[in-house]
Amino acid sequence: MKKVLTIGEVLVEIVATTKGNGFLTEQPLVGPFPSGAPAIFIDQLGKLETPCAIVSRVGNDDFGQLNINRLIADGVDVSAIAIAEGECTASAFVRYQEDGNRAFIFNIKESACGTLDKTAEYDALVECCDHLHVMGSALFSPNTRALVMEAAARIKQRGGSVSFDPNIREEMLNEPGIRAALDDVVSLTDVFMPSVNELFMFTQSACEQDAVPELLQRGIGTIVLKRGADGASCFTRQGRWDAAPLAVTEIDPTGAGDSFGGAFLSFWLAGAAPEVALRYANAAGARAVTRLGPMEGTSNRQELDAFLHEMKG
Ligand code: ATP
Ligand code: MG
């Protein structure tokens, strides 16, 4: 079976149980929850029993251990999560506003994962993995950008494949080096998994109808478009498939895209037909929003089958 590698932030998320604007007044909180977009993505792959690993860095503290314990329990190879003595694991405080937008206070760049180094464990994984998943949010530091680009080049050179979820906050685009790194990643991408607004970050065209063929012509074999509560679509040079949204009550939308991506890739790597991979990914994303906590909504195969049965999806 093919083994998947991802690189990037591992953090805890602490969530306000009230809705409103930010953290200027005292708020009741729940958490810490294991989190970080690359971590949620790889956890979803682990739960579907696809061999997988993450390169990251945490502090020698409970927040780091909580994440490592969860990833191990769900089947992820954590050999390349370095434990940095005297540093802190990344964290995010989150509060939802009434309109569903989120206010975050992040401690990521200044935390242990802000200075990911090249290690012997990283090298060993780049040598043995068959696929790299690039999470745009992980390109926040020059260190991770260098590690991601090296891994992508080495894995592609050996005949492996690359998937890419832009998953990037607007403000990150202004940082020097990010734009070029994103363009480099796109040129190596086999499976592209944007949200609708992210589809146009790499195209001349500003409408879906033109942007999709433009990207397919550039050499991306598979495009999976995430439409939030409107479901998802998959495009290849052979055709187009759509997944209608499954009707769920949204409790916490964080992590839906990462769970969706992990599920799609698990089926794609196993050689499933696009409509099958899309159906399971759509279910993984919908099921994820029904659970509080970013990584709490990842699913194993039995849970996805039961959920699809219940939803008649
Ligand atoms: P994030 O980066 O915040 O995790 P995203 O934009 O990458 O989000 P979404 O489009 O929000 O990803 O969600 C991914 C997929 O999960 C959707 O394409 C859809 O299949 C499913 N999904 C998400 N939200 C819902 C919902 N409210 N109801 C049903 N399905 C949903
Ligand atoms: Mg996303």
UniProtKB/TrEMBL annotation:
Transmembrane segments: none
PROSITE patterns, per the entry: PFKB_KINASES_2
Span of domain Carbohydrate kinase PfkB: 1-297
Record InterPro entries: Carboh/pur_kinase_PfkB_CS, PfkB_Carbo_kinase, PfkB_dom, Ribokinase-like
UniProt KW keywords: ATP-binding, Kinase, Nucleotide-binding, Transferase
SUPFAM superfamilies (alphabetical): Ribokinase-like
A Pfam family reported for this protein in Swiss-Prot or TrEMBL: PfkB
Gene3D superfamilies attached to this UniProt entry: 3.40.1190.20
A molecular-function term among this protein's GO annotations: kinase activity
Domain of life per record: Bacteria
The keyword Nucleotide-binding is assigned to this record: yes
Keyword Zinc-finger listed: no
Family: Belongs to the carbohydrate kinase PfkB family.
Protein name as annotated: Sugar kinase
Species annotation: Proteobacteria bacterium 228
Lineage of origin: Bacteria, Pseudomonadati, Pseudomonadota
